[in-house]
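BUG-582 | component: ligand-complex export | severity: low

The export step for adenosine-5'-triphosphate jobs runs without errors, but we want the raw record kept on the ticket for reference. Input record follows.
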Amino acid sequence: MSELFVRTLREDPADAEVPSHRWLVRAGYIRRAAPGIYSWLPLGLKVLRKVEAIVRDEMAAIGAQEVSFPALLPREPYEATGRWTEYGAGLFRLKDRKGGDYLLGPTHEEMFTLLVKDLYSSYKDLPLSLYQIQTKYRDEARPRAGILRGREFIMKDSYSFDVDDAGLDASYAAHRAAYIRIFDRLGFPYVIVKAMSGAMGGSASEEFLAVAANGEDTYVRSPGGYTANVEAVEVPAPEPIPFDDAPAAHVEETPGTPTIETLVAVANSAHPRPDRAWVAGDTLKNVLFRITRQDGSTEALAVGLPGDREVDEKRLEAQLGEGVAFEPFGDDDFAAHPELVKGYIGPGALGLESASKVRYLVDPRVVSGTRWVTGADQPGRHVFDLVCGRDFQPDGVIQAADVRPGDPAPDGSGPLELARGIEMGHIFQLGRKYAEALGLKVLDQNGKLVTVTMGSYGVGVSRAVAAVAEATCDDRGLSWPREISPYDVLVLVAGKAPEMLSTATELASFLSAAGLDVLLDDRKASPGVKFADAEILGVPTAVVVGRGLADGTLELRDRASNSSEEIAVDDAVETVLARVRG
Ligand code: ATP
Ligand code: MG
C-alpha cells in the first residue's frame, strides 16, 4: 500500500449519480478524463483484467478464437451496410490528412464479416466463432454513471458463422451457455430476457440484465416464467369483435375536453353510458410525433391507443429502429396540418388515405370491432361509437403503449411484474443481413454458393466492473466477489510495534508464496485511516495484525458481511488460505 498508486478520496465526485460510480472513483479505481471517458488506475485495471480472463476462459471453452481489430476503421464497409449513415450522431467519424473518411468502431460486424470473406470459401470451413475484447466508441447522448455508460468502453464481441439455420441455432445455444457461465462466475444477480430483434424480425435475441434498482432498462416477468425487456413485450391482439349490431357513430358536443380526464368527466355528465360509467380506457387517444430520419427527411406519425395508456418512448424508439429520432408534434407541425385539431384529433383525419396523409398506427388492442370515444376533428367535439374496421382503418399496428404491472403476459403465464436492470450482454441471431450486404458466401455440399448466416454476441466488459460494484457495494465502500477482486487478501498493520510489521510482512509473503494475490497495508497511517480504506477498497478478506499479536491472535475480517473473528497467529496461513479458497 505504501507503494501502490492509489489515493482514496473522502468526498464523492460531484457528477456521481450511482453508488458504483461514487465508490470506483473514491477508491481510486478509475478517473474521469472527459465526459463518458475514463482512465483505469492499477486497482481498476486489475479488476477489469480479471473480468476479461473469465470471458476469455468461457469463450475458449466453446471454441471461439480471439482476434483483434483496429478501433480506427475505414468508412467503406460501414457504407456498404448503411451504418455509416444509420448510426447517426452516435458514431465518431473523422478524416485523415488526405481527407479520407474514418470512424472509431462502435461494434464490428462489418469487419468480422469481411475478414471471414477474405479467407474462407467453403462449408467445410464452418462453423466458426471469432471474438475480440476491444475498446469501442459511441458518442452516447447521455453518458452516465461513470463506466456504466461510457463513450469509450470495452466490449467482448463475438460473431458466429454458419452455413445454415440449424448451425446458427447451435452457435447461439453455445454462446448462451457460455454467457450463463460468465455471469454466474462474475457473481451478481442477473436475468435473461427476450430482447428486440430489430428490423430483421423473427430471430432469437436475448439480453442478460444485471438486476439493479437504478438500471436504465426495464424488464417484465410473470409467475409462469415469461421474461422480456419492456421494449420487446409484444401485446397480443385480441380476437376481432363482430360489429353488425353496433350503433352508428355519432358526433357529440364535448366543450373544453382537450384531455382524456376532461373528456371522461364530460362524457359521464353530458352523454352517460347506460350500463356503466365511461372510463379512460373507452377513449381512443391519438398522439402525434414528428419523425426525423438519418437523411434529414421528416414524416408525421400518429399513434392511436386506449386513453388509459401512455406512449412509452423507449418502446416507440425500439419500434422505429436505430437512428430514427422523434419529437411530439409542436406548434409548427400543427400549423403545417390545419386539418388536425389539437386536442380533438380523431381517426377521421388520420391515415395515409386521409387528407392529412399522416401515417396512423394503433395499439394492438385497437382491434376490428372495438368501439371508441375519440376526437371528431372539430374543436369541442368527440365522436362516440366509432368502430374500428367499420368507421376507420388504421395503417397498421405499433407496440408503443406502456406496459404496466398486472398486464397479462403475452404467453398467458400470468400478470406481469416490472423491474429494472443494467444490460450486461446481448446475444442475437443476426441472420444473413451483414453477409448479404458484404457478399460473404461459401460453397455448400452441393457446390452451390450460399450466403453465410451469422450471430452477434456482446458482453460489456468495462460495464461489468461497474455493475458488479453496483450490486455488491454498501455504504462503506466496494465489496468484490472473490473471483474479480483486485487482491485475494489484504494484510493490515494496525499499530506501531515493529513486530506487527514484521509478522504482517512474513504472513503476506507466505500467502503470496501459496499463490494468493496479497496487498499489505504497511503505511504509517493510523489504524482508523487504514480500516476506512480497507472498507472503501473492498478486498473480500482482510487480516489485521494489531494489539492481539501480544496474545498470539490476529483478526480475520470479512468485507461482505462486515464481520470479524480472532484467529491464531500460528495457524494464520492455513486459516486464510482455507477462507480465500472456500
Ligand atoms: P444499450 O442499450 O445499453 O445502449 P446496446 O444495446 O447498444 O446497449 P450492444 O450494442 O448490444 O449494446 O452492445 C453489447 C454490450 O456492450 C451491451 O450489452 C452492454 O453491456 C455494452 N455496452 C453498450 N453500450 C455501452 C456503453 N456506452 N458503455 C459501456 N458498455 C456498453
Ligand atoms: Mg443491446
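Assignee comment: Attached the raw record above. The mean pLDDT is 94.
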